[in-house]
Amino acid sequence: MLAGLVGLVGAGAIGVNAVQVALKPPLVDCPPHNLPDMGASLYNPSPETTVELGQYQASHCDEYAGQYLASDAIVEAVTGHVEEHRRAYDAILKAPGHLKMIKLKYPEWQIKALMERISNDRVQLQRNGIQMLSISGMGIYQHVELQISDQSSRARAILRDRYDTDMLCLIPIPTRAIEPPAYDPNGPVACGMGQVDPSGFFPQDALRAAPPPAEQLYGDAPGAALRDFLVRDAGSVYRGAKDGWKVLNRRPDEVRYGHQRGDTVDYVAVIGQNGGPWKWMGGGDCRPHHPGTTTWQYSVSVADPATLVIRYLTGICGPGGVQKVREIYVDESSDRVVVAIIPSPMESRTGMCNTVGITLQTQVKLKRPLGNRTVLDGGPIPPQPAEHG
To answer: What angle do CA 121, 177, 378 make, to 5 degrees?
Structure first.
């Protein structure tokens, strides 16, 4: 999930020297970790309907402001003439009750033009102490991440004066959120292998803890907000998930709840507040994983049976690291070998950033030949059999 926080003011306080820039999500003002209720929809338009929707949106690009799938509907955003567009979309979808309309200030083309302008300015921004880390789009949510490398207000003034900040969230990010922590087999856990964000970490004890009784879980304001959402919408967002919840991570403005199924946590729900009541801010599948680790496959070196040849996934990011592998953890016993890899991002000549998809190779020297020992990937919790390639 892409983070958000209000304002550019005070971005230089308490050692913070990075700013993330993102389009404001619909209906909210840049709260933390608050995307629209996207994905896991019961309604999915047919390919023919999708084509017709695209044609209509293109023909009304002056007012088309984006689209996404919510838990129970397709959501269309426009900048004006809402009722006229609603009638047109109803005629295309032919699915009563599965359409929601929202009104936004800026059309999609204008936001994308701003994104392109920022991308084209990356060399000039870098000269002024602003490094582009990533630029991407996810449906209605356009995202640019910039890091300010100086401690003065000059770079922040450039952002404020050069770009219309009313169209964007300017988000202070602690520097420590950019780099993953060192691997610790007993250390923190996250729900996936995406961008490393300490706000999403939780202790391994949370995986082993039993869900509390419902009256205890729902006894405070965040718990009550989770209960109300589950009673109202759980059937469409996550079927059968009205019980079995427990707290994974608690912060002053956000609580992350995990859903226990059997002996594993398989889903995370985010309940937060943005200067108002506590409410559902999103959720997604949870595959407990050590933060920063990546997937890989192995083979045994023909020249040396005590050497594993490992191919792993990494990303490409602007600032990059000088080493292809930042850290390799190896734990050997008589019957198994556990390996976990934290890669460094590879520097990109274009300044663009991809989080995954680049395959690299490294070698791991064991204390003795592998033999018939099992090789496990130590990134997932618990470790999983590694893929032999």
So the answer is: 120
Q: Which neighbouring-strand residues pair with 371?
A: none
Specify the CATH architecture of the domain 13-35+108-177: 2-Layer Sandwich (3.30)
Token duo for residue 155: 């770079």
Edge-to-edge strands, sheet with 279-285: 245-251, 254-261, 264-272, 279-285
Q: What are 69's strand-pairing partners? A: 74
**Which one-letter DSSP state was computed for residue 167?**
G
Long-range contacts of 61-67 (CB under 8 A, 24+ apart): 61/107, 61/108, 61/109, 62/107, 62/109, 63/107, 64/107, 64/108, 64/109, 65/103, 65/104, 65/106, 65/107, 65/108, 65/140, 66/26, 66/104, 66/108, 66/139, 66/140, 67/139, 67/140
Any residues with CB less than 8 A from the CB of 119 and at least 6 apart, and which?
132, 135, 144, 351, 352
Q: Is 120 exposed, middle or buried (0-12, 13-18, 19+ CB in 10 A)?
A: exposed
Structure tokens at 266: 């398989």
Which tens digit of pLDDT belongs to each residue from 206-263?
Answer: 998 999 998 899 999 999 999 988 887 766 666 667 789 999 999 888 899 999 988 8
Q: Are 294 and 312 in contact (CB under 8 A)?
A: yes
Residues in the chain: 389
pLDDT per position as a tens digit, 148-187: 665 556 777 777 777 766 666 655 554 455 566 778 898 8
What whole-number distance in Å separates Cα of residue 21 and Cα of residue 37?
20
Q: Which of 161, 253, 168, 255 is nearest to 206 (CA)?
A: 255
